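pasting input
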Amino acid sequence: MTSVPMTQSSAAERDQHEGPFLQVENLKVTFPTQDGPVTAVSGLTYSVEKGKTLGIVGESGSGKSVSSMAVMGLHDAKSAQISGSIRVGGTEVVGLSESHMRGLRGNSMAMIFQDALAALHPFYKIGGQLEEAYLVHHSSASKRDARRKAIEMLDRVGIPQPDRRVDDFPHQFSGGMRQRAMIAMGLINDPSLLIADEPTTALDVTVQAQILDLLQDLQREFNSAVIIITHDLGVIAEMADDVLVMYAGRCVEYGTAKQILTSPEMPYTWGLLSSIPDVTASTDARLIPIPGNPPSLLRPPPGCSFHPRCVHSSKVAGDLCSTELPELLPASSGTAHLKRCHLTDPVGVYRSEVLPEIAPELVEETR
Amino acid sequence: MTQDPNAQAQIEPTELGANAAETGDRQLTDETSDAYGSHEVGVGNLDFATVAEMGHTATQLDPLAPAVLSVDNLKMYFPVKSSGVVRRTIGHVQAVDGISFEVPKGGSLGLVGESGCGKSTTGRLITRLYKPTGGSMMFEGQDLAQLNNKQMKPLRRDVQMIFQDPYTSLNPRHTVGAIVGAPLEVHKIVPKNQVLKRVQELLEVVGLNPEHYNRYPNEFSGGQRQRIGIARALTLNPKVLVADEPVSALDVSIQAQVVNLLQDIQTEFDVSFLFIAHDLAIVRHFCPEIAVMYLGKIVEIGDRETIYGRPHHPYTQALLSAVPDVKQAAIGGRRERIRLEGDVPSPINPPSGCRFRTRCQFAQEICAKVEPPLLQIGQRHKVACHFAGELGAHPATPVTTALLGVDDQGSPVSGAAPTNTQLTIPGYEETWYDLKTRQTTGV
Ligand SMILES: Nc1ncnc2c1ncn2[C@@H]1O[C@H](COP(=O)(O)OP(=O)(O)OP(=O)(O)O)[C@@H](O)[C@H]1O
Ligand SMILES: Nc1ncnc2c1ncn2[C@@H]1O[C@H](COP(=O)(O)OP(=O)(O)OP(=O)(O)O)[C@@H](O)[C@H]1O
Ligand code: SF4
Ligand code: SF4
Ligand SMILES: [Mg+2]
Ligand SMILES: [Mg+2]
């Protein structure tokens, strides 16, 4: 049995503290590699309140998983250098010992991983794995309590006949059922913070809809703070209150889901929106790719990391884009909307150039 | 195939390894290599107008295009073997069970449906990686289903496949030049001393630097590898390309590059596509016609506007309602959706009658008794449902009874002869069954 350094009372204190439940400030994560240091995340600042959902989108390799794993304290101190501040319910977790971290994980916070099959142990029954997760944080609970809790959680996530399926092995579950079992595991200790890393990417849309319903119901019930990482902007639109757009380890745009998806002000975000078709879009809408490939983190481009692929940099005076990293500054669409870009009139460019190509029907409407 | 309902049964793979490309070792290489960008031609200094110009709008339907491939009542049953020393066949996975459709010349038919419904199997049948259990596949006057391997060989050039996973479908030990050039040598298309020139042309077509023919796949990014796979499929000037999830393994920003490339190829070389994908939005963009599959059957097929705008099958309606919509951001909250209960039944033992009935909110007695025929109900629209209708307007009584000679509960009516004369041909008839009047009508 692992010792649980966090007492019940300190957990209660965490839940009552003032301000956002999760506060990340100036987070930087660097991996020393043979070829030199790789800075996977830098200068990242965001916060999530209880009952709210933050969506994180961005290019593959932009640091979405690495930053979330830092919040969960899942990086090996030997191979990752972490600086900045991460406060969970007021507790600073950067530099916290592994035993303290383990007390928080699965209790105050939990993560649903990109690959459910890899996260469930193939040789142990689903129920046994759930029971263990429960007992780690409820050392006074009996084995019978734990089993009852495991069945209850399987039922909550919509597994049919949970009292029978609790004794199944992971391979006896379908992909959607495994994903639900993962969610049951993540939620078994009523975490105040849940991070879901691409929870539905490999699933059918019908199963995806069930999982998203479930996440929302459970969030409502437990008033948890939720981070959902996905490449699907439709999921973001329907699930997230706020959105963080990442590129090459940095936040490049931040705002409410409505601000980011209806009045984005940064060319990478525009590129993302224009490279994805929409099920209800006009068939006159163009699918416009982002040219080129993601940058190397070993030798990141100078200036704005997006400049080698940006098709709007010619609108910026001089060679600012390739020499100076833009700061994350307030955008024009409203409070708390931030963007990292040198363009002086992003709204004008978006309205007059981008929108007519990617959503001609919206241009008509706003005229 | 993560949600394979047959995981427990011992399944005999048929002609497995028929496609060496798919079984190639996956090489896990360090993705931090930063030489990617340089493989491509002409990325630098583009402005938005130029890039937008390169992006395409949704492919339009050509209603007059003749069929290049005509598939009739196609079936693929995989034997399920018992375990033990003597392995007897104890059942069959009815992976594809009597599907019919046409692929128009220069056009593209989309194939969508839940995991395990038989999409990839259909693709493999058409490329003859599998020999079908039944049915026909007419291509230029020949039935691909009947040909033996030797007779198939000259036709293999014409029907090619693009695979889902750019990481496993290219042999890591061969150079890009060898990979793209191999089919040219096997089929002796061009003299040996011209192979390189042709390979370089093809690399240029797919937007890669032709000078990089002697590099290895691991030096390329995922999107670039997918383009190499496309170049390989194009080497033999195919007439039909089966694209099985061609972009789903790629990062979203790269998906659009590949979709645009496929559209370019389609217009330039007049290639016809069978386009298989999970992503209903990508399918809508690429395919003017779509077939929806459920558990080995086509349940609805029609043009884009009908399938996405006025679907008549309860499964199509549920599928479409489940797709999250970016436009919802302006409104907030979740979209109203039809919740499907339960899991997909096993294709070894599918439900009687309509295969969707175990999860259908409109199911009635007749649905368990009689299988609904894939009925043409519009100029370019067919649906297989006893209660076919637009969402919110499904009829109270079955629409199929007169055609099938049964009563509303699905029991045969004595003396009533089935009047249905138009049971599923591959294409569309001039006349169809009008759901409102329950009469045959036409243009
Ligand atoms: N242990 C490590 N050592 C070195 N580099 C690493 C390590 N872990 C991650 N990286 C690098 O950090 C970068 C960010 O990775 P991360 O997993 O956060 O990307 P992501 O945004 O989650 O992408 P995806 O959408 O593909 O999941 C990548 O370039 C990755 O190669
Ligand atoms: N070689 C095989 N031997 C036995 N059964 C098979 C074989 N290939 C496919 N099946 C079964 O046939 C059914 C249809 O599989 P198929 O791969 O065609 O589905 P799919 O629609 O492509 O699914 P996905 O969206 O997951 O790729 C599944 O039940 C599958 O398990
Ligand atoms: S700063 Fe320059 S290069 Fe970067 S996104 Fe803005 S315009 Fe493009
Ligand atoms: S035939 Fe019956 S069960 Fe099948 S889809 Fe139609 S209403 Fe539902
Ligand atoms: Mg990730
Ligand atoms: Mg498939």
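fyi The first strand of chain A starts at residue 22 and ends at 33.
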